[in-house]
Amino acid sequence: MKFLKEEKQLVRLIQVGPAIFSTIILLTLITFILWNKEQQLKREIETVTEVYYEDHKHELYNKVNIIHEQLQEFVHNEENELNKESLNRVYDAYTIAENIYNKYQNTKSKDEILQIIIEALRGIRFFDQKGYFLIFGLDGKIYLNDAFPQTEGSNIKQYSKQFEALEEILNTKKETYYSWDWYKPEDPHTLYKKRGFFKRFEPYNIMFGTGHYMDDFVKSNQEKYLAELSKIRYSSKDEYIFVVDYTGTMLTHFDSHFIGTNALNWKDQNGFKFMKAMIDLGKKKSEGFVKYDGVVRPSTGYKTEKTSYIKVFEPWQWVIGSGFYNEALEELISAKKTEIEKKSLENIQTVFLFLILTTIGVLILSSMVARILKEKFQRFKRSLAHELLKNERQNEILQETLTEKIELENVIFNSNMVSITDIEGNILYANDAFCQITGYSKEELIGHNHSIMKSPQTKKSAHKALWNTILNGDIWRGISHNITKEGKDIYLNTTISPLRNKNGEIVKFIATRFDMTEKVKADFELRKKENILVQQSKMAAMGEMLGAIAHQWRQPLSVISIASTGVKMQKELDVLSDEFLYESMDSINDSVQYLSRTIDDFRNFYNPNKLESNFDIQDALDKTFNLVKVQFENNCIQVIKDIQSVKLFGLHNELLQVIINILNNAKDQLVLTQSRDKYVFVTAKKENENLTITICDSAGGINKEHLLKIFDPYFTTKDEHHGTGIGLYMSQEIIEKNMGGKLEAYNQTTEHEGRSYFGACFKITLPIR
């Protein structure tokens, strides 16, 4: 009865549960969406405030920098115009002097002509009546100084040492711009900075010059620019440019009453001297923003907060600035906030309506789903009984399978050697396989240390490293050398793992092993065979070396023989001269030195040292070509080289042995050809992070069936007196096993001087480390 009551409750839950669950989910979703919209509204308003403020600051920055750039350009243009005017005035004076000189040079003396020129230029005024001409000689004598006639006839250097530098300039150049300090006619006791132009009049070795006073020029430019600046108008009364100098004097302002007054003590309503702060900021950082409160806004007449940006024009010590009133900014932000809030409310209303309609739809759908679920539940109940019967049978089958699995695990467990030791290495457990392979019984093993089976050949360092590994909590894997009870060597592939207690402390070690003694012995036999191959390769290389030495020695030995015989014959004939004797001895000595170098070259080449080193492949190949040069020349074989300088780290001598082996093979094949064109093409270049060396010949190539076997040990296409079949096998072993590279063989056609040559190619690829 209880089961039937629970079944009715379950059916009822299926009918109303989805509707209740859907309603809760939808109400939660509505709450979350409303909260999310509120947070989104706050973020948008904060973003608008930040963006509006930053935009206005950027606008201020651009406005002031445009004025600053215009001022720089204005000053630059005015200076250029003034410099140009100085040049034109001096050129005018020069032309006047040149015309007078040309007119009177044949009728009047130098002094008379010079006096006419001086009087012609005297009294000429320009630059607002402050400019005049100056004439003085390269020796410093003043001929004309119209503003200070009392100095005429004296030396200009007594008034200023600066003219010594001008004298040096005009000794090498005909004209120049120049700056110096000089007095004003209205103030003959104070030096003022002047800038002007000078030109040398070569017939009399005198200089014409004029200049303008820089302070007058700057003052005039300031007045001009302030007049231009006052004409600038913006769309709002709140926008204007102000300029104040370092002393605090207001130079331009929207309110003309402030122009000419000192603004250093201007304060806002908080007592903050904002204009002094702007000047100090400009002196320290040359530009920046200043915020202050309680200044009058022109468009309203009320006090409000303001933000200004200033930038210094350093040449004139001006501070240029402009600002915006935060009240106007707040009005714009407020309008934008209202717009965002209105739009957000509309979005919330739309979402709310959508969720209500969705809720109604979900409730209808939940009712339909509940009926479907009820029907499915009835079918499920009927099939449940059937499945229970079916599961009973499956459990019986599973129990049988589990029993088989346990038996299988026991078989696997007992097929490998398994032992457990304590933290000191004393054996706590050993399975039957362990006893069978080692020859010890369980009684002989348990309680004893594993070291009873350790081979005396095992190094102490290796044993110590094993214990360091497992005591650190790591798994040790490797091959251990052990001794059976009968004293036989066995090699075991061993894995030792630490076992921990609930506190994470190592308390035991479990080791699994399997016997691989036969494999180790087989590997040992293989290494013995490889050593035999290496020895045979060395013997073959020794034969090659002796042959090469014989070729290299024939010519110098012949020279020594001829020289010594010639000396002996002339001595017997009593015609031996000192000159012939010395020449013969020098020839013999040169040949002996050559033989000695040859021995060193071959000894270095066959040096068994296998230490890796840095070397340049270009230098290495040059040494190799020197070793085979005589043999190749005797057989009319040409070596065509295309070798880049590439730095390599590796086995230098072993690489050279491989290359000379390939070169000798190419030589042997080329000797057999009937062609007159006998070439070996050698290239070496860097490709990505590898060095690629290719050695190709023109001997006709390798048969296809031989290409598959060419690197096999003892395979050779030569007769038994000329080949062992070891060279290429050992070459591949050196390149691929010792140097981590690759050695390939193939046939290829090589183009040279418009002709094609077919032959064998060997490609060596080595990593550049």
Automatic annotation (TrEMBL):
Transmembrane segments: 12-35, 351-373
Domain annotation PAS: ranges: 418-473
Keyword Transferase found: yes
Principal location listed in the UniProt entry: membrane
Enzyme class label: transferase
Histidine kinase domain sequence ranges: 548-769
Catalytic reaction list: ATP + protein L-histidine = ADP + protein N-phospho-L-histidine
Gene Ontology CC annotations of this record: plasma membrane
Keyword Nucleotide-binding included in the entry's annotation: yes
SMART domains in the record: Cache_2 (SM01049), HATPase_c (SM00387), PAS (SM00091)
InterPro entries noted in UniProt: Double_Cache_2, HATPase_C_sf, HATPase_dom, His_kinase_dom, HisK_dim/P_dom, HisK_dim/P_sf, PAS, PAS-assoc_C
Localization of this protein: Cell membrane
Pfam families for this protein: dCache_2, HATPase_c, PAS_9
Domain PAC: 473-528
Keywords linked to the UniProt accession: ATP-binding, Cell membrane, Kinase, Membrane, Nucleotide-binding, Phosphoprotein, Transferase, Transmembrane, Transmembrane helix, Two-component regulatory system
Membrane topology of the entry: Multi-pass membrane protein
The protein's name in its UniProt record: histidine kinase
Provenance organism: Candidatus Marinarcus aquaticus
Taxon lineage: Bacteria, Pseudomonadati, Campylobacterota, Epsilonproteobacteria, Campylobacterales
